Automatic annotation (TrEMBL):
Keywords: Hydrolase, Protease, Viral release from host cell. NCBIfam families: proheadase_HK97. Pfam families: Peptidase_S78. One of its GO terms (biological process) is proteolysis. Residues 8-164 form the Prohead serine protease domain. The lineage of its organism: Bacteria, Bacillati, Bacillota, Bacilli, Bacillales. One of its GO terms (molecular function) is peptidase activity. This is HK97 family phage prohead protease.
Amino acid sequence: MKELRVAELRAVDPQGESSLILNGRPIVYDQPTTIKAPFGEYIEIIQRGALDGADLSDIRLLYNHDMNKIPLARTPKTMSFSLDSAGLTMRAELPDTEEGKSVYTAVKRQDLSGMSFAFKVPEGGSHFDAKTNTRSISKIEKVYEVSIVPFPAYPQTSIEARATIESTWAKLKAPERQAAKIKVNQILLRSF
């Protein structure tokens, strides 16, 4: 299942370069984050080393996960990543277009300061501790895209899964919601 999470971003003064360069850290290790979902919230931690061996070969940079627009950058030509002890860092060269300039300016002014990412955890790549209500991710199989987002403080689950869960959730009456919440939590406990 593809999932989304939020992190940080900043603009870099080109210093003689004509390019619009953004540097960011879309994924951070060992930082607890509260994930909010229709069935409740839980703490999530991406463990140090979870990206070791992950597929980072074909990643797009988007604005707000909008796949209907032209990507702002793509690996390996206009965007690169590197791993360090704190997580994943990114360097992207934005296009000299109105959208590229607008995003760059908004980041430079700090109107946009966050990043989110879409990823896949393989089977056995995470563990859920019911006592602490914490999901620990030890392995990320693939990073699909990173996005510049206007509300970085709100962690998001997968867009596809979230839309499906929320539409089903909205159709349920209160007693059915409680039963569904219990069932979803039981499934989550088994899958982690």
